[in-house]
Amino acid sequence: MRYVIIGAGAVGGSVGGRLAEAGQDVVLVARGAHHAALRDHGLRLTTPDGTRTHRLPVVDGPDALDLRPDDVLVLSVKTQDSTAALDAWSARPVAGGGTAGEVLPLVCAQNGVESERLALRRFRHVYAMCVWLPATYVEPGAVSAGGAPYTGMLHLGRYPSGTDGTAAAIAAGIEKGKLLAPVVPDVMRWKYAKLLANLANAIEAVTGAIGEESWELVRRATAEGAAVLDAAGIAYAGPEEQAETRGDHITFAPDSGVERGHGSSWQSLSRGTGTIEADYLNGEIALLGRAHGVPTPVNDTLQRTANAFAREHRAPGSMSVAELAALIDAAG
User: What is the model's pTM?
Assistant: First the structure.
């Protein structure tokens, strides 16, 4: 089994690096300066175990890779980039016959809950992955992951539900690399729980604050999200179940040698990508709220403000918590 990591950034690079350390067959897919650094100097992965450089095959797209029937495509781009990636990879021929969309498994290792639906339009065999893996894109060619003793927990299952032998085989390979990969029949219940946690991403990105200062805004965004999911009849794992499942498998020790990084949305603003995933996090709650008659002023405002920051290339953390709260209160 060969793991093709489509989007070898913070999460994809961490997973790819851990798999490589365990002797798994890995190909990294990246673009621009990150691709050039990975190609020329290898992937530099920093964890509490230290820093290792992995010289792995790296390509900048599907045309540069001959796909094999034992390949597993792991999609770890941001959701706003999913459609382009899915279109490009699904049509790629596979040795022995068929296209990737027809014969290969595709794993959506992403925040949000939309990419699986996008993938199922193009791939017959789609698997969802709930990613609990604190990681940071440090610079081109370098990522860090501070979780210990395991780097991450990656719940995996068929989309929209169920398990099979392919999921078990994918998970078995992943778990050789200091990663946990529980195979569950209700993986979307875990992804909706992660969605609620990710509603705070926009708050951190815009204000730079996650902690006591912004706790009330986080509480309001999460409560609003939970109310929407309840109204829509969508199941999600509760905080107690999540805490019990993760236990002490993934902790961040301040003396680990790995600096605690910011969330994915903050990193998008910091890198000036011009896009942010708020449409598929806060925007998912806004969409469901409109569909089920539940007002969502907090998440509406977070989506709108985060998008404005990305579009205008504003620096992360350049709005105060008080200013953001005032915008939300005006909307509500």
Answer: 0.96
